[in-house]
Amino acid sequence: SLSEKLQNLFQQLGRKGRLTEADVTEAVRQIRLALLEADVNYRVVKEFIARIKEQAVGEEVLSGLNAAQHVVKIVRDELQALLGDNGGPLANAPKPPTAYLVVGLQGGGKTTTCGKLAAHLRKGGHRPLLVATDVARPAAIQQLQVVGEAVKTPVFQLGTRVSPVDIVRAALAHAREQGFTHLIVDTAGRLHVDDVLMDEVVAVRDAVAPQEILLVLDAMTGQDAVNVAEQFNARLEISGFILTKLDGDTRGGAALSIRSVTGKPIRFLGVGEKYDALETFHADRLTSRIIG
Amino acid sequence: AFRRSEITEDLYEALEESLILSDVSVETATLLVDRLRERVRREGIKDVEAAYDVLQHLVAELLAEHVRPLPPPTRPPVVVVVVGVNGVGKTTTIAKLAALLKRQRHSVVMVAADTFRAAAIEQLELWGQRIGVDVVRHQMGADPAAVVFDAIQSACARKVDYVIIDTAGRLHTKHNLMEELRKIDRVAQRALGHTVDETLLVLDATTGQNALVQAREFAQAVNLTGLVLTKLDGTAKGGNVLSIAAEIPISIRYVGTGERPEDFAPFDPQRFARELLP
Ligand SMILES: Nc1nc2c(ncn2[C@@H]2O[C@H](COP(=O)(O)OP(=O)(O)OP(=O)(O)O)[C@@H](O)[C@H]2O)c(=O)[nH]1
Ligand SMILES: Nc1nc2c(ncn2[C@@H]2O[C@H](COP(=O)(O)OP(=O)(O)OP(=O)(O)O)[C@@H](O)[C@H]2O)c(=O)[nH]1
Ligand SMILES: [Mg+2]
Ligand SMILES: [Mg+2]
């Protein structure tokens, strides 16, 4: 672990006094390595360790062990501050129905997450409607229907020959007349560099005016996370992220990268395939995981 | 490309950064740049472009011995079990591979052994209809090993060339799911009378350093023989395969470059190296 590595490093520091630049340089190298191994973006790491260095040099320490503890604390605090809070509970429209748009790359876990959001809303006493706008992926609508059944939530669909924009407009009308409180709009996976599909999702957003635009991202995403986050945010002005598959052992450094380049909060974490496997984001737990 | 006029330490640092940004592990990036440094020194390379080419060469070299096509059906059926974590593109890859083998005039059968995930069987069935390949299936919730046993028995009887088995996505951290995979492998072996011909790990190019962990863990559970890298049509470069190639005796068979059946090609190390360092 980083903590152990730093303890070994500072063992020679038997004296007490202030940490010098030389003392800190090697520590910073270890921290950089730990963050890159955790998939934090290269450039985000660069800025991050510059700040750590600034804070660590001149720190008053009592011993080698104390020095390691000091540096680890600086890293934890800085990481936690950067990750920030979860942006509060999901927003609601001034009058129902509230729409949530769920977007992201192929295979990130959007459809499953829509089911989790429906279950979450039902627990809160709401009446959600799932909307199937993935008309491209084979059996995508059936998948959402099976999901809907599992979370006792109706699924609005118009088959695969109607455009996503038309589907979502009809869903909105249906929700209004049937008294649904929330629309959870599942969309097809798409690449941030596919202009046609990015234009399509912007059009869907404009048609449904969502209160939340949630970018679902696989927690094991590597250096590319910043590109994805930047592009989706630039085109859609997302309201936050949902990081999935955190029940695995990936360190999840992508979390730091996406938060730091967009400033948008991580709202929820997906921690399993079942529909109750959705946690509200808390910076402290993810911090421990990233540091390793 | 790089706009520096001479080979300095700055250039080496920039190249290392470029590799890391492509998801090459720090360890492998350092190794490659050290090898480059050595070649530059030994060969007296002065030109940045030339150094750049050497690095691309070193990357291709690291991967060259890991390129080998799927085994031919000299004793049919060739059984291919497709495995990997959730959402990486296993089902889509199976359809692409089946379509490719069919174009090469082989008889192919796909097996819907993901009996867990919502509409997984329907997804593979729709693919089967689209590309004109039969799909063997049971009902959702059936024992995947039973589906596999059934499918292999029938393929042996019908002398089908290739049997491609779809399995549920599973995180390597889930002990019971990895156990299930071992069971599928054992049962397949029993139905076949010998070990499965190919166990193909599907990896997402957008995955970071966890890719190596996935490869290691899956290689522990079953005899991994091949790898497919998907979603290379995005901006991720898939540098994660370099550390895998360095550590695990596995052939990188194909790459996925989109969602259609034709978005599939044999792995080409030269091309991969060029794309890794644009
Ligand atoms: N272990 C685990 N698996 C997850 C999680 N979220 C989703 N999955 C799985 O990831 C796979 C992909 O999930 P989907 O919901 O189909 O992903 P998607 O983003 O809708 O995929 P596309 O519509 O094709 O873009 C499925 O096997 C899900 O069960 C999670 O938090 N943990
Ligand atoms: N852009 C792109 N998308 C791909 C590629 N391969 C697969 N996909 C998409 O990724 C998503 C997931 O693909 P699946 O084949 O369902 O993945 P899987 O591994 O079988 O998923 P699970 O069975 O849920 O674990 C789908 O939307 C596919 O169309 C690829 O090479 N490029
Ligand atoms: Mg989906
Ligand atoms: Mg699948």
Brief summary:
The complex is a heterodimer of chains A (292) and B (278). Chain A contains eleven helices and ten strands.
Account of the 3D structure:
The complex is a heterodimer of chains A (292) and B (278). The radius of gyration of chain A is 22 Å and the shape is elongated. In chain A, the strands form 2 sheets. Chain A has an 8-stranded mixed β-sheet, with helices on both faces. A two-stranded antiparallel sheet of chain A has the order 1-2. Chain A has 292 residues and is α/β, with parallel strands linked by helices. Chain A has helices spanning 2-10, 21-37, 42-56, 64-83, 110-123, 140-150, 164-178, 195-208, 225-236, 254-262, 283-291; strands spanning 17-18, 60-61, 98-104, 128-132, 155-156, 182-186, 212-218, 240-244, 266-270, 278-280. The relative contact order of chain A is 0.17. The mean pLDDT of chain A is 95. Chain A has 11 helices and 10 strands. In chain A, 50% of the residues lie in helices and 15% in strands. The longest helix of chain B has 18 residues, at 26-43. Chain B starts with 8 loop residues before the first helix and ends with a helix. An 8-stranded mixed β-sheet of chain B has the order 3-2-4-1-5-6-7-8, with helices on both faces. The mean pLDDT of chain B is 95. Chain B is an alpha/beta fold and 278 residues long. Chain B has helices at residues 9-21, 26-43, 48-64, 90-103, 120-131, 144-158, 175-192, 210-221, 240-247, 269-276, and strands spanning 78-83, 108-112, 134-136, 162-166, 198-204, 226-230, 251-256, 264-266. In chain B, helix 5 (120-131) links the parallel strand 2 and strand 3. The chains are: A alpha/beta (292), B alpha/beta (278). The A-B interface holds A 33, 36-39, 41-42, 105-109, 111, 136-140, 142-143, 145-147, 150, 191-193, 218, 220-224, 227-228, 245, 247-251, 253-254, 273 and B 17, 20-23, 25-26, 85-89, 117-119, 122-123, 125-127, 130, 171-174, 204, 206-211, 213, 231, 233-237, 240, 259. One magnesium ion is lined by residues 110-111, 134, 140 of chain A.
